[in-house]
Structures are given as structure tokens and as C-alpha cells.
Amino acid sequence: MMDVDERPLRLDVDDDGAEEDEAMADRGAFERHYADERSWEELQEDESGMLRPLDVAQQQRQHRKRMAAMAGPHIQRGIIRYVYVLLDFSRAAAEMDLRPSRMGIVADCVEAFVREFFDQNPLSHLGIILLRNGIAHRLTDLSGSPETHIKALRSNMECAGDASIQNALDLARGYLTQIPSYGHREIMLVFSALSTIDPGDILEAVQKCKEANIRCSVVGLSAEIYICKLLCDQTGGIYSVATNEAHLKELIMEHAPPPPVQAEISVASLVRMGFPQRGAEDAVALCACHREVKIGGGYTCPRCKARVCELPTQCHICGLTLVSSPHLARSYHHLFPVPPFEEVANMAVANGRQSISKNCYGCLQELPTPGGKVKGVRLACPRCRQHFCFDCDNYIHESLHNCPGCESTSISSSQPSQ
Amino acid sequence: MARNPTDDVSQVVLLLDVNPFFWGADAERLNGSVGITFDQYFQHALMFLNGILLLNHTNKIVVIATGSSTCGFLYDSTATENISESITSKGKTKSQESRSELITQSMQEFVSKEEEAVKANPDSSKVQYSNFSGSLAMALCYIQRVLREPLPHPQPRILCLQGSPDAPYQYISVMNSIFSAQRNGIPIDACVIGNQHSAFLQQASHITGGIYMKPPQPDGLFEYLMMIFATDLFSRQFLQLPRPVGVDFRASCFCHKKTIDMGYVCSVCLSIFCKHHQTCSTCGATFSKSNLTAITGMKRKAPPS
Ligand SMILES: [Zn+2]
Ligand SMILES: [Zn+2]
Ligand SMILES: [Zn+2]
Ligand SMILES: [Zn+2]
Ligand SMILES: [Zn+2]
């Protein structure tokens, strides 16, 4: 995705102008859009028969503009989440329009979701509630261990009776109102049925969820249902209905990254955490989570020295939240972004140095010079004033999140905080 | 994975630690003996580089020097003319000189630049780290360029020859680089010569699937390099390579850049602090004491039976 614009395209272009004008009238709007721009005229063939844009610099500028627009303003995300996943295991989940059954597919998707959820939200908690026989039944507590949820779900694969959204919402709300104030409360409902059989007023249950600041999202399997739409609208969640198996998985996985935070709802707080070390591959230790002797791997709690099998988790002995620091570090590039590079407009003027650099500071690729062979834009980091090529600019801002120039000078400007 | 014809063609990017505070005369007094002199170290690295090019004539190498004040490309086997122009100032014709001489010359110039920088900044009493995060970022930018080239391109990997201790203030940038390498499938190998293990490099090789090693006898560096780090990615599947002796997953706090194994994490932005603060210096959130007690008193999860 990073260098689509740069890569030469192998296309067969033959333009017969006259014919095109006639055909214009009965073309779709999107076709006209391409025809009007006559984008093929901006291409030229190079020595090897590849098509390249005529004005590389212009092309690159447009790409940079698009990327800048996409980056947009900084959104604060709720990183510590408490999510109840409500699964409809009523008789509608036994339908076999998805193979082997809706229930089987939902369980597969939820298993993948649970793993992805804890990967992207290392400090979050999740619980599962099943809707079955008209009642809601809590399958797992809110906890931070993916394996517990997956195991419980796998041993509870049966469906029967009706589904009651009201019962499930009331149950989940009861648990979610007890969580610490800094957490973000969420409900995700995966709904197969076309109706909800409730003992009372479901609108009241929706209202209560809204008052408790619980963000409710629904992924439907059959058709759009009014009450689900209302629930999501009222609480700020997302409602989507899957059209096939792959789409269902995609819709469920969309809920894995942290959602944008609704301002002033949550309270910030400091959470005490341990960063355990990984044991040697052949060390033998008694594991606290499975209560058996394990060989190799494992992590040691820094407070009580108990061994746990995987991270993130809570220490089974002393209750300390244990995470691996790389887990936390994955989100740090949001905190300390690399400043956008500026285009060097006047390439003839050196930027505080004796002569203008010939090569990109990052990749040694030759940089465009006035009258030179290389075409394109030349970019400079506003902090370290080093010059970079278009490709490095892309890579640095989209994947690397470090400026090689700033990092390789020992001025403290590149240091985070204070 | 299907074998393609370039599976054992490597693009090795070597990050050479040339930190004068680690190799200099004072260093031995401060840190204790390393077991290898800079001269030996450099000679071993040169032999290793020549060895890589002899193993397969299509192998490519790039050398990046990591100093205490700057980083720089020393050698690029794909574009020797270009690089020698930009690094060496003398107008000799470089094509006639042999590779080793070329690297040695670049190195001498780099070292003298470093020397000037050290003299300009006489405050050498505090520990001086090497700019490892800078050379790692440069290596990744360079590799990105290799990966952009049309297939088949050589398999890139990074080898860090590190002596200096980890600089805690580089934690975030090093982690960013490691994740980027992981996403692109670039293994980071590490050979640590100093007296302590490097937590950065342990994590780097653990996350990217590279090899981490701290040779017990640093003066036999060349043997370790050739036997372990010269193997291409394809052959590694068939070899019993050294397994990690554990990985140090400790973090460094944002307030003092201290390495800690227990600390406080801001619930909004996940910044790490070594002690309780009133406000988060990163995102500006305000914390109250009552919240803290709420968390430490949080339910203890019953172990699954
Ligand atoms: Zn513990
Ligand atoms: Zn570049
Ligand atoms: Zn910079
Ligand atoms: Zn601190
Ligand atoms: Zn914060």
C-alpha cells in the first residue's frame, strides 16, 4: 500500500479518441470520471517498457496530501476496555445456512476475536454471556486470560429456546457497572434470531445501558432488526449485519481495535503493573496457573516470583497485573509521532550545511537535484534537518515511527516526555 | 514455504558499535575488561564481511557505524562508488582499492569525527551510550529500499555487534523499529560483546525471530560470527542454533528512564512511571489516590481448575 503510486504499472493502453467521445453518454459516472481526467496522458513508457507517470514530483505531492488528510486529527482511544460479549445461542443459532451451523461459525469467529482483542488491548478484560432458553447465562467472568474464555465457550456448544436481549443487557449491565471508573464499558452482541422474547420493557433496558455509559454494538446474522438498531444508536455503538461467513468474521474483528473514546466519561488512573522476565528455554519450574511442573519458557512475577505461563495475565499468587513491556510499547508511536516532513522547495539552497546532501539520509538512494536525473520530491525533517526521499518519508511515518536523523544525533530532542 | 531461487541470497546489514566511551582507554577502567580490543574487534568484523561475500557471490552487505554522537553508513556493496563519495572526502578512485581498505578508511574517518565530537563535549563523566536507535532506523530504511526493488531481491537481515549498554531513553524508538522489522519479516540478530546482556537486543531477536548471543570468549568473535551469524535464513531451518537464555522484558520508566520490573501505568495512554504521580506527563490526565486503591484492591482471579 505504501508505494502503490511509485510502482510502475504494466498496462495495455491504446487510446482511440474519437470512439471514446461517442461512448461517453452511456457510461457510468465512475467511468466518465476516469475518461475526463485522461489520466493515461500523464504516463510515459520507460526503457524497459514500464509505464511511469510524467511528473513524478506532482504524483508524490498528491500522495503526500492524501496521506496527510487520512492521518487526520489525533483521536483519543479507550485503551483499557471491559467488554461483555453476548452470544445468541437460541434455536436460531442452530440454522445451517452457515456450515456447520451459525453457532459453530460464531464460536470460531469469537475465538479469533478473543485472541485478537487481548493482543490489541493488553490491559483489557472480557467476559461472555450466552442467550439461551429465554434467559441470559454468564459463561465467564470479566478476566484478562483468553484461554479461559475459549475453553468455556468450547465446552458449552449447544443452543435451544428463545433469545432475550433484555435479560442479557440487564445481566451485563449489572456486572459492568462494578468495574473501575477508568475502564471503558462495552457490550458486543452477536445476534442470530429475528425476535427477542423479553419479560419486561426492553426500551427501558436500552435506556439504562445508555445511562450507565455502556457502548453497545450488535453484529446480526439474519436481517436488520429495529431494536438492535435503536440500541446501537442510543449507546453510540455500531450495528452491522453479516451477509456471509467471511463478512461475519470481518464485522466481529472490527471490534478488536480500541474504539474512539467518548470524552469525559472515563477517569484516568495509574495502574500498578509488573513486567516479568521470560525464563530460559530449559528451566524447570512449578507453574502457578496450571499447578504443575513445566519445562522451558514461562514468566516470573517480579513481586512474588511465581511462574505464569503466558502474558498478559494477573499473577495467581499476588494479584499483580503482569504484562510484557512490548505489549505496551506497541501503542507508543501514537504518543510520540514523528513530525511531518516538509518538502524542500528550493533545492539549490543548502539547509545550514555547506552543500546540499546528494543521498537520502535513510536509504542512501540518490535524491532529486535541480536539473538532475532523479525526479521527485525531496523532504526534510523539521527537527534534524536531514533530507529524505519520498519512499523513506512514507515508511518512516507509516511503519517505522522514528526519524533516523533525529535518532542518530545525541541531542535530547528525540527523547520522549518533559 | 516454497523455496525460491534467492532463498539463500542474503542482504546483511551490519551495525558496528564504535562508541568511543565503550572502546576507549577509559572504558576498561570504568566497565572492566571486555576481552577484546577495538582493533581485534574491527578485524574480526572485516573478515566476517569478506566471508559473507565469499559464501555467495550475490550476497550483499551494508555496514553502519554506531557512534556516541552520530551514526553513518560505512560501506554499501551495491553502490560502492556512491557511498565512498559521500563518506570519504579524498578524491581517490575507490574502485581500485580493496574492500577492506575502503571500510577501514571510512571507519577511520568516522572515528576521527567521533573523536572531535567527544572533545567538543568534555562532559564525559556521565555514561555515554551509543546511538543504537539511529543506526537501527537507518538499517530499516535501507532494507525497505531493497524490498521495494523488483523480485527476486536478496533476503534482508540485520546483525548488531553491540558492546555499549542499552540507553534507556531510546526504549520507545528501539521498540518502534523492532515492531516495524517484525511486520516486514526482517530478523534482527544480535551478538553482544559487553559485560552485561542487552535487554533491547534480547527483545529484538525474540520478537523478530533472530538469534541472540553473548559469546563467552569475545576474543574468538570471528568464529562465533562465522559459525552462527553467517548462516542464511533458509539454512537456519536445518541447524541447531543457540537458544535464548531468557528474555528481559523489563520496561523503562518515562520519568527517569530507569529500567524497572514493576511500575505504574497510565490508563489513558499506557505511559510507564516508576512511582505514583499526580498527573501523567505524557497525556496530561490527572490521577487521584482513590483510584489507585480501587485497582490494587481489585478481585483476585481464581485459578481455573
Ligand atoms: Zn505475583
Ligand atoms: Zn530514502
Ligand atoms: Zn529528524
Ligand atoms: Zn521514573
Ligand atoms: Zn497518560
UniProtKB/TrEMBL annotation, chain A:
GO terms for cellular component: transcription factor TFIIH core complex; transcription factor TFIIH holo complex. Gene3D superfamilies: von Willebrand factor, type A domain, Zinc/RING finger domain, C3HC4 (zinc finger). GO terms for biological process: DNA-templated transcription; nucleotide-excision repair; regulation of transcription by RNA polymerase II. It is found in: Nucleus. One of its GO terms (molecular function) is zinc ion binding. InterPro entries: C1-like_sf, Ssl1-like, TFIIH_C1-like_dom, TFIIH_SSL1/p44, VWF_A, vWFA_dom_sf, Znf_RING/FYVE/PHD. SUPFAM superfamilies: Cysteine-rich domain (SSF57889), vWA-like (SSF53300). Keywords: DNA damage, DNA repair, Metal-binding, Nucleus, Transcription, Transcription regulation, Zinc, Zinc-finger. Residues 1-12 have a biased composition (Basic and acidic residues). Pfam families: C1_4, Ssl1. A zinc finger (C4-type) spans 301-318. Residues 82-256 form the VWFA domain. Coiled coil: none annotated. Residues 1-22 are annotated as: Disordered. Residues 13-22 have a biased composition (Acidic residues). PANTHER family: GENERAL TRANSCRIPTION FACTOR IIH SUBUNIT 2, GENERAL TRANSCRIPTION FACTOR IIH SUBUNIT 2-RELATED. Belongs to the GTF2H2 family. This is General transcription factor IIH subunit.
Automatic annotation (TrEMBL), chain B:
GO terms for molecular function: zinc ion binding. GO terms for biological process: nucleotide-excision repair; regulation of DNA-templated transcription. It is found in: Nucleus. GO terms for cellular component: transcription factor TFIIH core complex; transcription factor TFIIH holo complex. Its main location: nucleus. The keyword Kinase does not apply. Component of the 7-subunit TFIIH core complex composed of XPB, XPD, TFB1/GTF2H1, GTF2H2/P44, TFB4/GTF2H3, TFB2/GTF2H4 and TFB5/GTF2H5, which is active in NER. The core complex associates with the 3-subunit CDK-activating kinase (CAK) module composed of CYCH1/cyclin H1, CDKD and MAT1/At4g30820 to form the 10-subunit holoenzyme (holo-TFIIH) active in transcription. PANTHER family: GENERAL TRANSCRIPTION FACTOR IIH SUBUNIT 3 (PTHR12831:SF0), TRANSCRIPTION INITIATION FACTOR IIH TFIIH , POLYPEPTIDE 3-RELATED (PTHR12831). This is General transcription and DNA repair factor IIH subunit TFB4.
